[in-house]
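LAB NOTEBOOK - FOLDING QUEUE
OPERATOR: T.R.
BATCH SIZE: 2
PURPOSE: Compare the predicted structure-token outputs for two unrelated chains run back to back under identical settings.
PRIORITY: normal
REVIEWER: second-year student, initials M.K.

ITEM 1
FIELD SEQUENCE / FIELD STRUCTURE:
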Amino acid sequence: MRNHKAHICCALALTLALALGGCAGGKSTGDGPQTDSRSQSSTATDTPKEEGASIVVGIPQDLEDSLDPHKTEMAGTREIFFNVFEGLVKPDTEGNLIDAVASSHTISEDHKTYTFTLREGVRFHNGADVTVDDVKYSIERCADASEGEPLVPAFSAIEKIDTPDEKTVEITLKEADTEFLAYLTTAIIPKDYDDQAAQPVGTGPFVYVSRTPQDNIVMEKNEDYWGEPAHLDKVTFKVLTDSNAIVTNLKGGSVDMCFHLNATQIQALGDDFRIFEGTMNLVQALYLNNAEEPFNDPKVRQALCYAVDPQQVLDMVSDGKGTIVGTSMFPAFGKYYMPELADLYTQDVDRAKELLKEAGYEDGFEMTITVPSNYQQHVDAAQILAEQLKAISVNAKIELIEWDSWLSDVYMDRKFQSTVVGVDAATLTARAMLDRFVSDDESNFINFSNEEYDKLFEEAIGTADDAKQVKAYQRMEEILAEEAANVYIQDMADCVAMTPAFDGYESYPLYALDMSKVYPVEE
């Protein structure tokens, strides 16, 4: 079984993303990622203070995951640890891969050899200099298949790693891979350090300090950072699992900044906060367990698609903001994204009823939508979908469970009929969005199985021809839509709010909370 890591986003932070609303950035359907717009509640005259400061950031979930960056699976953990760990390369706000622990890199014409020159002066948070041995160790650790599948499945393509001198790392692949560079965002960690799971050590702009379960995570400025230093001395991520408490904490001053707010929350804040607008960069859907009756019948799944109206979900949850999607790909992926698939199932109740009759469910059926209770936007979307499904005599009961129960019962054990969540990409590759639906992929929590899809995936990851790869990935997207693997809804709008005492936040086309650019403002 493939061991592709899970990247589920509940409320923008994962890996389970919530349906956000009330604000939205511009969307691009070109080859590059979309850019974000920002409300004008902040002004161009704001200037950063020379001294540092502390900030308290509200997050919707605790780190339910391993603190070891190579074993982290959930987006909520990844987006926070974006501040602590770096790979040989890392993404920028435009979705480009830029050199990080490496100062430069080259890729052979056949896309089989990737050569990196290490950056001078990069130190781990424990004070040790980064060496080629650390880089080789980090990559080999994630490529190790001695106890099953590699921690980074793409690394199974590595044939050898050479370190010809103290500044050069050369990675040779068994076969060409045009997407391989994106996987080298994998964290570089010290070779001779064995406590990553308890006290993680990386090279990023912030140093991990402590975690109090269900309460907070504390980080401090990395004074020895190789790049532009952070403006903040200390960041405390405060866990706020009660969505109703977010506005109260912001207005009360106990929290300075919150991510992934919805329309109601933004309206409740009034004009006293800076609001940053963007998009979630994920796919929210009614995810269906394809192995469970009646969802093992594609006609039933297609009937659900015809019965729902995603635009109504957007209108009611996020004031019409967001982008309707028709498959497991969102607009930031440019050349892979197929906007036309959003029109494959326009609401047609009569057609939905016909399909149910053909499948033997003329009188409808009962189903359960399991939703993590601490993500109100998913709960709201599920409620709207349940009302829409009544038109075809499908009675959908909404079951609210805690986030940790969702992870164990729904995602890991696959004990569910349907669920409303959002799925993101851990890396800036189409593969990261589509490999989870390969039949034997460990992350295939919906139990989707299609022989053509599996063959296309192997073709896509095995070719160095960009046009052929795009064609294969797009056909995979079509299969997911045509087979109605899920009831696709949207790439959700996203809003971030912070007090006027801070500014500088920038978003990324993937899950990342970059606190290094946030700065305190002169009053």
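ITEM 2
FIELD SEQUENCE / FIELD STRUCTURE:
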Amino acid sequence: MDLTHQLILLAGLLFLVSILATVVTPRVGIPLLLVFLLVGMLAGEDGPGGIEFDNYPLAHLAATAALAVILFDGGMRTSIQSFRVGLRPALSLATVGVLITTAIVGTLSAWLLDLSWAEGLLVGAIVGSTDAAAVFSLLHTRAVSLNERVSAALEIESGTNDPMAVFSTLALITYLQQPDSFGLPAALLMLVQQMSLGAAIGLAGGWLLLHGLNRLPLGDALYPLLALFGGLTIFGATATLGGSGFLAVYLAGLLLGNRRVRSAAGIRRFHDGIAWMSQIGMFVILGLLVSPHRLLPLVVPGLALSLGLILIARPIAVGLSIAPFRFPWREQVYIAWVGLRGSVPIVLATYPWLAGLDSAELFFNIAFFIVLVSLIVQGSTVASAARLLGLQVPPTSARIHRVDIDLPGQRGFEVVSYRLSRNSRLIGSDPHRLESRLPEFSRIVCLARKGHVLDDRAWGPLQAGDYLSLLASQAHLPALDQLFEAPRDPVEPAARLYYGEFVISPQAPLADLCEAYGVEAPEGIGDATAEDLLSRHLPHPVVGDRLRLGELQLVIRKVDGDRPTEIGLRLPH
């Protein structure tokens, strides 16, 4: 019994320390996932904790389950609308990019670590994919607000490149075990089987889970659990049948997150917490698994491989993978830099242990070293790199909270809350008259000011800092967002430096703009408008895209599909 109590105490303390670290680390610019990893290392055999943990099968089981949960949650948080600008480049990065990275890092590994070519490629395959947990957690912080094209490409890549890395790792391990019988045809057959089964079972399982959530009469607390264990069942069934469980669970989450689902907000909140717990547990366990003193002999080759991955392999892979998609050079540089490695390489590094390869310890330690360097060097500079490259888009969201509510005989309604900014167009409005401007069936249910909920007779004109809660249909949330996020001054100081000093109509004639500001008009401009010029050079525009017109810059402020609807004009400094 004493051992049981001690293990519960130890687990609770490790999670508490990791959670409390989330309060401090954002202020000092340290990636949270690195902190979780360090907590595990400090609790391990070389740290003050002194815990000896070398159970690779248990670590593999825990980390794989945690990664499945993280990918399921990441799929639910990925908007299908982002596929308009991010799907094709992300899939290219997730396939061609992983193979290029594997080849370059594999060549360096074979040379620096004195390995055979197959063993070197195995090292490259283990560290070949970016990490979903690291990318999702860093890109969803308040410190980073990127344009849709960059964030979509990075998120979709991190959610879909694990299957290629897993395939490459398993194929190379099988080759090392059976060099005479396992060749290229067998490897291609394995690839087709994993991808096809992963896609088919993931979409079919997601469809069944969606209908189960919407039709089964369960208690409110059981819908999030049904979604969680449904996702794990899809992962396990796919992997058991020889498919890619990671691809399947990501696609199931993607399907679930982009359709109307009963208790949707409750499921999202629950999975947000479960995903955090999975990240903490996974990184702490993987930190326990490593012995820092065994990393010391690998400092020189490990640093060389890490720098080769960050400065050579990743930039080349990104450049070749997204070359057909006409990404601006700043965005290419940023995507190349944010090639974060995290839990996935460490999980893949346990595969050689399970397979009984002779160099399994070397593979694990070198992968762990590369992950440490990636989290320290790249993870701590995600926000500063975005600012340096001019990719930090000013955030505009006023929505702060949403809770789904099942009305009798109805589904798809939520109580959504907004906070009025100092520059909100609604300041000074009468809340009672505001209801006439709300979408159909939307109603104000609460107004809070300075920490107090006001009676509707005491509302008075809206003020900056007011919190409004409304009952609304999920389908009307975009219209409400647009209403509450509309600024009084379209060129407020916070956004003026990014979007420019003025707002112009997309139909503004370019010839008139050039004449008004003394800019030489491009040849063959004719009757072209600002929208024509942007559409010609930016076939899939996103908010924040910019195009130079002489000494002026046209900056897209709003888009509707592939059409810019509001354009900022930046004057020469």
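REVIEWER COMMENT (ITEM 2): The longest strand covers residues 552-560.
FOLLOW-UP: none requested
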